[in-house]
Amino acid sequence: MANEIFMPKLSSTMAEGTVIEWFKEEGDTVEVGEPILEIMTDKINIEVESYNDGILLKKYFEADDVVPVNHVIGFIGEAGESVPDEAPGESGAASEEGLDAPAESKQQDDTAESATSKSEVSGKRESMIGKVRATPAARAHARNNDVDIKHVTGSGRNGRIHKADVVNHLYTQTETPAKQTSSVNEPVSSAPESQAAPVRTEKLRGSRKVTADRMADSSSTIPHVTLNFEVNMDTLIELRKNLNARHEDVKVSFNDLFILITSKALNLHPDVNITFQDNEISYHEERNISLAVAVDKELFVPVVKNTEKMGLFGISKEIRRLIEDTRSRKLAQEDMTGGTFTISNLGMYSITSFTPIINKPQAAILGIGATTDQPALKDGVLHNRKVATLSLSFDHRVINGAPAAAFCDTIKKLVEHPIELIL
Q: Which residues form the Peripheral subunit-binding (PSBD) domain (predicted)?
């Protein structure tokens, strides 16, 4: 009997996984413990290993397909064994093992579209709609744009329709009528049409797709309010310079200092150190600060945990570990979860201020802009001062303007008078 390959549930909050890449093709030999495909969840790429020896008989999903946890994505067995032509949906083996399954409708009536929309990724759903093979993203895009999926030509394997195919179909449909709008009385130009310059296209996939989806979800579901405020960086710059001169083995960065400052401010403003999910506010004793880290075109947000128990050098050491693991793609899943507040620092670029997007389910994020020179009077003498603009975006459903402004004032005080950090 053929053995199921199913989308594993790797955390209590995981509801679905994205297929990144198959390492085996149908007909290839597979051994126990051998990686057969790579999936992504919570921005972490994880290799799925085989639990069985045999032949990869079937794989139902391709790269970028999103599959609910516990759903069958393929079969391993003996050569010639019979397996379903379409994905059978939820794994019986996964259910028997007591794994949680997503709360999805399993009705097979095509008229119950709203009740079954969440289960479209299963092969059962695909087989019900005129045997059309299409990815969930393609079906959703077609539905949102009133496109009959049966009229779209698929570019994928076995004619499978991807979202790009639906987009191209829409473009073709809208472009064709436009070329027929000229009057019959107008002369037809004999000049050749100019050839459009080639356009390079790139499919959004992997962690970039996960990040894009989460950013869109956050910006569309959270009422963002952003407060911008200036801080004098002179004292903090001098402090960092003196620390690095005295401790050559540990180079303190501005990220280190801002995480310590933010941790102190969150201690004084516990109403900001919160998460909001399922209509419930969670107040966190731990101050787990996420730091946005860009790697090539991808964005990761590792978490410095329990900053309330760490000094500056401890924070500095942990950040370096997290950044190194992020850049080498060795970041563990637990290093990406549990954050209660996020910092996004663009100070190394010429960006003076920006509006950061909240990292759900957190309720606030601090953006740090570049430090610039500004003229100022001191004792009647004109001199330069170093100034940076910070931006606090917060979820106005659970944080009001006054508490957010008070938090900003505390950040400003700690930046301009960092002696307060040791009090």
A: 133-170
Q: Helix 254-268 and helix 401-416: axis angle, to 10°?
A: 130
* Structure tokens belonging to residue 214: 């989460």
Torsion angles phi and psi, residue 37, rounded to 5: -160, 165
140-191 per-position pLDDT tens digit: 777 777 888 888 887 665 566 777 777 777 766 654 444 444 444 545 455 5
pLDDT tens-digit readout, 298-345: 889 999 999 999 999 999 999 999 999 998 888 888 898 999 999 999
Residues in the chain: 423
Structural tokens at position 353:
């201020």
3-state secondary structure 335-389: HHCCCCEEEEECCCCCCCCCCCCCCCCECEEEEEEEEEEEEEEECCEEEEEEEEE
- The residue behind tokens 């209590």 is 12
* Side-chain-side CA neighbours of residue 395 (13 Å): 25
Q: Where are the alpha helices (DSSP H) in 269-375?
A: 312-327
Gap between the Cα atoms of 218 and 378, Å rounded: 44
Structural domains in the chain, CATH included, are: 3-96 (2.40.50.100), 206-422 (3.30.559.10)
324, HSE (Cβ side, Cα atoms, 13 Å)? 6
Task: Please say if 224 is a catalytic residue.
Answer: no
Coil, strand, or helix at residue 364?
A: strand
Q: Which of 162, 247, 396, 417 is catalytic?
A: 396
In angstroms, the CA 153 to CA 173 distance is 13
Cα separation, 272 vs 227, in Å, equals: 14
